[in-house]
Amino acid sequence: MRYRNLDEVIGANVFRKGPVAVIMAEDETEVGSSLAHARMLGFPCVLLLTHDEIRVAPEDEAPVHRVTYDVHAEDAMPRAMNRLIAAAPGVWFHYCFNGEYLFYPFCETRDVRELIAFHTEERRYSFLTYVVDLYATDLNAHPDGVSAEDAHLDRAGYYALGREDPLNGFQHKDRQMDFYGGLRWRFEEHVPYHRRRIDRVSLFQAKAGLEMRPDFTFNDEEYNTYSCPWHHNATTAVCSFRAAKALRTNPGSRREVKDFRWHYSVPFRWDSQQLMDLGLLEPGQWV
Question: Does the domain made of 1-98 have the CATH classification 3.30.450?
């Protein structure tokens, strides 16, 4: 089904079959695989936000709700999500871009609704998400840095710093960290400072008054925490070709970035166990 704008899809009441996956396609790279991955995880409702010019294979587009949207506008994702949050309080949302794939512990055998049900029982309404950069190692064969068959990731080089609160004397916020690593760290000279973090809250429950900020944090600080005060909670990961694609297509970096490989590169197996082994996913009490 196609919709001319967000107002139309909101009016169609498609969110009654949540949770909802929102995928923003900035170009045609891996749109089909991102849509298929969201459906495979068990999202009964998938929204594709994109320009009318973006081509999507009919078999990939048929099961989703395609919405015409200006994906290149400033803060395009937070603006879209805030519209959807306001329209559907109580609904769980996941958001990502094309060429990105949500993973959570045991996602190969457990539906995303099982994960959400367990998290809700723990009185948690958001998931800390690490954005794990994926990249092709043969840039002659894949000049844009994107290849699902040749996908690699960094097995080391990740770190976290306490998140400072400028409204409280720059003290560290409770249970909040800024996470770094991957291509944004290794090629930081080509990445604006405000885009170097690799943490998001990419799976959360909408509620009245909730707003997503331009940096993908929320105005409810508890939504930005990595765990509850009493024990560790499950986390998620979004495995993403977006940084690799940007580094290889932006005029300021494409001639400088000739190879993504380094001594900590390993093939991505496309399974959650590898991410848990690397410490990029946390099952918490969900075993």
Answer: no
What are the tens digits of pLDDT across the range 240-272? Answer: 999 999 999 998 898 899 999 999 999 999 999
Domain boundaries, the chain: 1-98, 100-287
Q: How would you label 64-90 residue by residue, b for 16+ Cβ within 10 Å and e otherwise?
A: bbbbbbebeeeebbbebbbbbbebbee
Q: How far is CA 206 from CA 65, 79, 85, 130, 136, in A?
A: 19, 14, 5, 20, 35
Does the pTM of the predicted model rise above 0.90? yes
Which conformational region is residue 181 in: left (phi greater than 0), alpha (psi within -120 to 50 degrees), or beta? Answer: left
Q: How many CA atoms lie within 13 A of 90 on its CB side?
A: 3
- String of b and e for 191-209 (b: at least 16 CB within 10 Å)? beeeebbbbbbbbbbbeee
- Among 146, 159, 224, smallest CA distance to 185 is for 159
Cα dihedral 95, 98, 99, 102 in deg (nearest 10): 20
